[in-house]
Amino acid sequence: MKVAYLVDTDWVVHYLNGHRGIIEKLKSLRKEGLGISVVSLAELYEGVYYSTNPVGNEEALAEFLTGVSVLAIDEGICKVFGKERGRLRQQRNMIGDIDLLIESSCLYRDAILLTNNRRHFQAVEGLKLLSIPSLKGQP
């Protein structure tokens, strides 16, 4: 299945916490193809295992992942990562490698990144982002 949208870690956390805006948006985009980077999945499992309810949270994560493609890091993504990391280093504008791997996955697949952490990703040229402006007051 083609992945049109890559879901960042923050959106999955908001989804699992019941934020209506994120839940509705993800439901509306599922048929176009949702993916998650294996890097985000690793971050999510850290949250699961160090939460107050590891069993329940792991079940909720597994339910979220139904119908979502988990995207591995392959050679094509590594090439994009290397080019982008070098460009950012030359500009003295480094960002974290985890975020850069997620961005590289989007660029390589020409996918749109679903995130509200825009400042983590705005330095990457050509990256398409979709955010929900305000999650305040939403359970």
Overall geometry: globular
Strand tally, please? 5
Order of helices and strands: EHHEHHEHHEHE
Cα separation of the termini: 31 Å
The main sheet comes to:
5 strands, parallel
What is the CATH class name?
Answer: Alpha Beta
The proportion of residues in beta strands is: 5-15%
- What count of helical segments does DSSP give? 7
Say which CATH homologous superfamily is assigned: 5'-nuclease
SS class = alpha/beta
Summed up, the domain count is 1
What would CATH call the architecture? 3-Layer(aba) Sandwich
Structure, explained:
The chain contains 7 helices and 5 strands. The protein has one domain (5-130): 3-Layer(aba) Sandwich (Rossmann fold). It has a 5-stranded parallel beta sheet with strand order 3-2-1-4-5. β4 (112-114), α7 and β5 form a beta-alpha-beta unit. 27% of the residues are buried. Helix content is 54%, strand content 12%. With 139 residues, it is an alpha/beta fold.
Write the layout of secondary structure elements.
Blueprint: E1 5-7, H1 9-16, H2 20-29, E2 34-37, H3 38-49, H4 54-65, E3 69-71, H5 75-90, H6 97-109, E4 112-114, H7 118-121, E5 128-130
Parallel strand pairs: 1-2, 1-4, 2-3, 4-5
